[in-house]
Design brief:
There is one protein chain. This protein is of the alpha/beta class. It has one domain: 3-Layer(aba) Sandwich (Rossmann fold). The chain has helices at about 1-10, 20-35, 45-60, 70-75, 80-85, 100-110, 115-120, 140-150, 165-170, 180-205; strands spanning about 40-45, 90-95, 130, 155-160, 170-175. Helix 1 (about 1-10) packs antiparallel against helix 10.
């Protein structure tokens, strides 16, 4: 099914054919993270911050298929009605959503380092930082990637055609073939939707639950 999702993606968006190998590599990186019970952290600015939150929304609850929680998790709750309302999760956190921390750090220190500070505090080996930047050159994104690398996190980038400095700092970097900001963002959405679908089908097959 994962290959069919990729086939559908490039059929609907032929411009993304050249990104196919990197999208597959991104999937393997994320799969490995979740196989190890790691956490996915995401960061971006502006529209990319919204995309980071969007990705979290697809991973932390059912996206395209049901995700009933496991029988053991349901038993721990000792409340069948509550258990029926919960979904299996792929742990993901958007660093762009921490308003009080980011404004405090920006006011007291320097806004260019807030994502770096969050990764320094939260990140652990086995986790992954997924950085989104249409230019690939946003300073706060680059600082976060440097800290992630130093702390032993895997690094994934989603950016535009040029890649900027981001491509040098990421283990896997998906560079969609556009340079204008809104056009880059228009191709980012189908890429991350495909990745979320691939992960969901891997970890939550419809024939059972996790």
């Amino acid at each position: 099914m994962k290959q069919s999702i990729l086939e559908e993606l490039v059929a609907r968006y032929p411009a993304l054919i050249q990104c196919r190998a990197d999208i597959e590599a991104a999937y393997r990186l994320l799969q490995k993270t979740y196989d190890r019970d790691g956490i996915l952290y995401l960061c971006g600015n502006g529209g990319s911050a919204a995309d980071a939150g969007h990705i979290v929304g697809e991973l932390m609850k059912s996206f395209t298929i049901p995700r009933p929680i496991s029988d053991s998790a349901s038993s721990e709750l000792n409340d069948p009605a509550l258990a029926r309302q919960l979904h299996g999760v792929l742990r993901a956190i958007s660093l762009s959503g921490h308003l009080s921390l980011s404004t405090a750090f920006g006011n007291d220190v320097d806004a260019d380092y807030i994502f770096a500070q969050q990764i320094f505090g939260y990140g652990r080996p086995g986790d992954v930082l997924w950085a989104l930047s249409t230019s690939g050159n946003s300073p706060n994104i680059l600082h976060a990637l440097k800290v992630a690398k130093a702390r032993g996190l895997a690094t994934l980038g989603l950016t535009g055609e040029g890649g900027g400095e981001m491509k040098r700092l990421c283990q896997v970097c998906i560079r969609v073939p556009e340079r204008e900001t809104y056009k880059v963002q228009e191709l980012h959405l189908p890429v991350y939707h495909a990745l979320c679908r691939m992960l969901e089908e891997n970890f939550f097959p419809q024939s059972g639950n996790l």
